[in-house]
Amino acid sequence: MKNLLFIGLITLVMLLAGCGKGADSPKGFSLPKGNEQNGELVFNKYQCLACHTLEGYNDADLGKVFADPIPLGGTSAKVKTYAQLVTSIINPSHELAPRSHALVPVVDDNGQSKMTVFNDVMTVTEMIDVVAFLQPKYKVKPIQYTNYLQYQVP
Ligand code: HEC
Question: Which of 68, 133, 143, 146 could form a disulfide with 82 if both were Cys (CB 3.0 to 4.6 A apart)?
Answer without folding.
Answer: 143
